[in-house]
Design a protein that fits this description.
heterodimer; A: mainly alpha; B: D-Maltodextrin-Binding Protein, domain 2; SsuA/THI5 (chain B); signal (chain B); NMT1/THI5 (chain B)
Chain lengths: ~260, ~325
């Protein structure tokens, strides 16, 4: 009797551990079954097996070319948005005037649909990387500004008062008190922004590009290669997921103290 | 002394290299690469442009308006676009772009339907569900082709959907017919074949809606600054068109070599589908690569009507520059 309890507990533990993977595999199998039994044509919903075949029908080097084109733009746009958003937030925290002047402008930028503006940006900046990076940056920087500003505003007032009473210079107040308090918020913003960066790069590729996963998906659709388009889409989602995880890993490595304590 | 000799040698080498360098031309496609866009790829692969001392870079486009904007703003020198879109843009905004060489001398618009639908003519579409993509230039000419067949837009149930969804909608019976370009017929045929069905094509040009369509267009700035380069480009392009349509398999392979995502076979089939748009009764009568004033006026008449513009809004002959092919 004593033997069965640890076994049961082990099975329960493993089931719990692999639950997300099992759920995902079950979903894919169900998808395949529906497509096979229901004889769903590829142009309506390609089966996972058709998507896998389409994936391997494209040369590996082509995948890498498209992946690099999208990743390059997404990462450049993401880095640019960090470079703009964090100093902007600091400026807005330190200057009431700057806050009043910039905040409405930022809201206007955020509420303008980038998809509608993208063709104009291409006309102004050309069809190379700069225009695509700007489009990506426009999509990604707003969540970062909001999260960084919110984080810095949540610094306990007594800490600020203490630093002021010790006559600490403003830059030390910002870098040693406000920014550390804002780290969890900044990383929340970064997690949102990194997935938006991929969306931004794809939007830009839809408007003007010669390579990239967005271009590849658009291309495949225009040639009615739906399983190939799905393969591109899934590849894109995997990349997005990996980038999201890499932001989490960065936070865990460099700022472990900023993570919520595990129960 | 040695240093002076070396420097002068280097300077003369740089000078001779720059003299030898080919003229750079940016070519703007009006859509993504494909079979009907083969000539420019053929020109590069077969060395027709190199023979004219040209180095051509190709940029893909997202429709005629996009291509024309890029040429007008100096991002591209020359390219392909619908002459109708060019005329409308010139009438509205005096766009500094002109057509220099006719490519499709007939309209590519067509209705595609399943053979089993019982639809054999445009008149049969009365009361039927027809799907089209939202941004195709065909939409502007739809009222005209319907009018020529004693119908109006009210007589059909028009649905707009993503271009990729049109074929599936038709094959699955959600719509009775779709509006497409004849260059895409093979793709629709394949989709229908997969479900054991056959399609038929009802080209609009057969019912009288026949005028210039896709053309080689160039920015006025490019023509003014580098007329000799433009002349050489047009000469090589004309050669490329002839080669592409006489050697479809080779042309398909040439496109595939530069854009691996395009299947060589599919590109060859698309060239075959587009053949009648390039070589037809118009080219037989007027000669290959020649614009005629009569057909330009006819084209503008239809374009003006389709876009709700006054015929006086543009002298259509100003939208064309034939001096470079003479």
């Amino acid at each position: 009797m004593n033997q069965t309890f640890p076994l049961k507990s082990w099975v329960k533990q493993q089931a719990n551990r692999f639950a997300p993977a099992l759920f995902f595999i079950g979903l894919v199998l169900l998808w395949e079954l529906v497509c096979q039994v229901g004889k769903v044509p590829n142009y309506i919903l390609p089966s996972p097996s058709a998507i896998i075949t389409a994936f391997f029908n494209v040369e590996f080097s082509r995948w890498m070319t498209h992946l690099w084109a999208t990743l390059r733009v997404a990462l450049m746009g993401f880095v640019l948005s960090i470079m703009i958003a964090i100093p902007l937030s600091i400026g807005m925290i330190r200057s009431e005037l700057m806050n009043r002047v910039l905040y409405p402008a930022l809201i206007v930028i955020q509420s303008t649909p980038v998809v509608a503006v993208a063709p104009l940006i291409i006309v102004l900046l050309g069809t190379e990387d700069p225009s695509r990076v700007l489009i990506t940056c426009l999509i990604t920087f707003f969540p970062l500004v909001v999260s960084t500003t919110t984080g810095m505003l949540e610094t306990p007032p007594e800490m600020i008062e203490l630093s002021q009473s010790l006559r600490a210079p403003r830059y030390r107040e910002t870098w040693q008190i406000r920014i550390p308090y804002a780290i969890p918020h900044i990383f929340s913003g970064l997690r949102v922004s990194i997935t938006l960066a991929i969306i931004g790069a794809v939007v830009a590729e839809f408007v003007a590009a010669e390579e990239g996963l967005g271009y590849f998906i658009q291309f495949s659709t225009s040639f009615f290669k739906i399983p190939q388009a799905f393969a591109g889409l899934i590849f894109l989602s995997v990349i997005s997921l990996l980038l999201f995880k890499s932001v989490q890993w960065t936070q865990a490595w460099f700022f472990p103290w900023s993570l919520p304590k595990k129960k | 002394m040695k240093a002076i000799v070396r420097l002068s040698l280097l300077a003369s080498l740089i000078a001779s290299t720059s003299l030898m360098a080919a003229d750079k031309v940016t070519f703007q496609l009006d859509w993504l690469p494909g079979g009907d866009k083969a000539p420019v790829y053929v020109g590069i692969q077969q060395g027709f442009f190199a023979a004219e001392d040209l180095e051509v870079k190709i940029a893909s486009g997202r429709g005629s308006t996009d291509a024309l904007t890029k040429m007008a703003t100096g991002q591209a020198d020359i390219g392909t676009a619908d002459i109708g879109a060019l005329m409308a843009a010139k009438a509205i905004d005096n766009l500094p772009v002109v057509a220099v060489f006719p490519y499709f001398t007939k309209t590519p618009h067509t209705f595609i339907t399943l053979k089993s639908s019982g639809i054999t003519s445009i008149k049969d579409l009365k009361g039927k569900k027809v799907a089209t993509s939202p941004f195709t230039s065909s939409n502007a000419f739809l009222p005209l082709v319907l009018k020529q067949n004693d119908l109006s837009e009210k007589d059909i149930n028009l649905i707009k959907a993503n271009p990729g969804a049109l074929g599936p909608m038709m094959v699955s019976g959600n719509v009775d017919a779709v509006i497409a370009w004849v260059t895409n017929t093979a793709a629709f045929e394949n989709q229908a074949k997969n479900t054991g069905k056959e399609i038929i094509e009802i080209p609009w040009s057969a019912s009288g809606l026949s005028f210039y369509s896709s053309s080689l267009v160039a920015s006025e700035r490019f023509l003014k600054a580098r007329p000799d380069v433009a002349k050489r480009f047009i000469k090589a392009f004309a050669k490329s068109v002839q080669f592409a349509y006489n050697n479809k398999e080779k042309a398909g392979a040439n496109v595939h070599k530069m854009v691996p995502e395009v299947d060589a076979d599919t590109a060859a089939i698309q060239l075959n589908d587009a053949y009648d748009l390039v070589y037809n009764e118009v080219t037989t009568k007027d000669g290959f690569g020649n614009f005629t004033t009569e057909r330009i006026l006819k084209t503008w008449k239809y374009v003006a009507e389709a876009n709700g513009l006054s015929e006086d809004a543009l002298d259509p002959t100003t939208a064309v520059n034939t001096s470079l092919t003479e």
